[in-house]
Amino acid sequence: MTEGLYLYCLVRSGLMPVPLQGIGLDGHNPLQAAPLNDLAAIWSPVALEDFCGPEAEARLQDLTWIGPRVIRHQEVVAALMRHSPVLPVRFGVIFTSRESLENSIQRHYDRIDGFLRYVSGTEEWGVKGFLDWKEAKEKLFARRWLQDSDRLKSLSPGKRYFAEQRQRASVDLELQRWLPEVCQKIWQGLQHLTVEGRERELRRRDAGDTREMVLNWAFLISTGVAADFRAHIREVNNRLADLSLVLEETGPWPPYSFCPALDMESVR
Parallel, antiparallel, or unpaired: how do β-strands 86-88 and 3-12 relate? Predict the structure, then answer.
């Protein structure tokens, strides 16, 4: 069985734990380090046949096979982040030899080194925003109806019905205008707490969830600012609760969303 070198992340060689502890994707091969100057690539042996060829293509689509391995990949990166700044590598990057791995590190040395300097002392946090459109519309409509209730009650049933329908249409337009404005204000309000922020792809709602994801952001923040960051999110949620917009923060994560694109070897 031919073995490959599965790569997890790159770290500072002088900051990684010695001896390196942990098991790789396959559950029995230990983690290893390939040092180069002040960098080190964290890897473990894997069977190339697990990742290459027609059978491997089907295996990589099987969540029961790939799921635990993706989780283990993330666990390894998260464990190293406790000791050193890390450059996480995407799942499934495999080298055919130690020489090819070291050549790749050497080729990208300046970018890797610069990135580790940039993220030193930081961590990634995610912020997602969810809006229950139906509930928000009903709350806003009830508020508008209450403000105009005396006039509406004085109308005949037919006229009142059409007046209410016009109000519902205006509520819909108001929410459509309000949402991007409030998202922009939230984004701006987080800037003083963050090193960098990036927008991420919005995801579809889960089955049975009436909420829609309306924002999905990643932020790089200094490690000591996490408590203030989370407190700010709670404050924003308190302000927006009456319109059914809820922010959810997750973290800390390795800086996945801020990694430079590197053409690393990957066998298939």
Answer: antiparallel
Beta-strand runs (E) in 121-180: 122-131
Q: 151-167: b or e for each residue (b if 16 or more CB lie within 10 Å)?
A: ebeeeeeeeeeeebeeb
Beta bridge partners of 40: 11, 35
Contact 217, 198 (CB under 8 A): yes
Helix (H) and strand (E) counts in the chain:
8, 9
Q: E strands, 51-115, where?
A: 86-88, 94-95
The helix or strand, by DSSP H or E, that contains position 134, with its residue range, turns out to be: helix 133-147
Task: Report residue 156 as tokens.
Answer: 């005949």
Of 44, 32, 104, 34, give the one whose Cα is nearest residue 73.
44
Sorted by sequence, the CB contacts under 8 Å of residue 13 that are 6+ apart come out as 33, 35, 36, 37, 38, 39, 40
User: Are the beta carbons of 98 and 30 closer than 8 angstroms?
Assistant: no
Token pair listed for 200: 């991420």
User: Are the C-beta atoms of 250 and 125 separated by less than 8 Å?
Assistant: yes
Residue 103: strand, helix, or coil? helix
| 127 closest CA partner among 201, 228, 213, 216 | 216
Report the distance separating Cα 30 and Cα 21, nearest Å.
7
Beta strands in the chain, from DSSP E residues, in sequence order = 3-12, 32-36, 39-47, 86-88, 94-95, 122-131, 196-199, 212-222, 245-253
230's CB contacts (< 8 A; 6+ apart) are 249
pLDDT at 246: 92
Per-residue pLDDT of 64-89, as tens digits, reads: 888 999 999 999 999 999 999 999 99
Mean pLDDT over each residue of the chain, to the nearest integer: 87
Residue entry with tokens 């089955």:
207
